[in-house]
Design a protein that fits this description.
With 113 residues, this protein is an alpha+beta fold. It is built from three helices and five strands; from the N terminus they run αββαββαβ. It has a single domain, classed as 2-Layer Sandwich (Alpha-Beta Plaits). The chain is globular.
């Protein structure tokens, strides 16, 4: 069972799944790495380049860390492109706080936009 789960996870990465592939072998079959709450119309968007992200588990950790921040509404993390797109409310959260959250997981971050 574990070999099958690992094979499925590897196929998912090759097929372009962006997150939600867990080390234990379970996965979310969606191609979206998005964990979202309804974003208000005045939400800002920022894109980060992330160094050190190598697999779906990395992307999942980053997505969850961003989603736990009050004011973050959408976090999309793409392993292949090594970037994250985040919709957030600037009055509630700073870009620096999001960068610190990602860096606290051991990744290097550069703001792209």
């Amino acid at each position: 069972m574990l070999k099958r789960a690992i094979a499925i996870a590897c196929l998912g990465l090759v097929a372009g799944w962006t997150t939600n592939v867990w080390a234990c072998g379970s996965k979310d079959k969606s191609k979206s790495g998005e964990i979202a709450r309804r974003a208000p119309a005045n939400a800002a968007t920022v894109m980060f380049a992330i160094e050190g992200m190598t697999c779906g588990s990395c992307a999942t950790k980053i997505t969850k860390a961003l989603q736990q921040i009050d004011g973050v509404y959408v976090a999309r993390v793409n392993v292949e492109k090594k970037r994250a797109n985040v919709k957030y409310l600037a009055k509630k959260v700073s870009v620096a706080k999001m960068v610190r959250a990602i860096e606290s997981l051991g990744f290097k971050v550069k703001q792209k936009s």
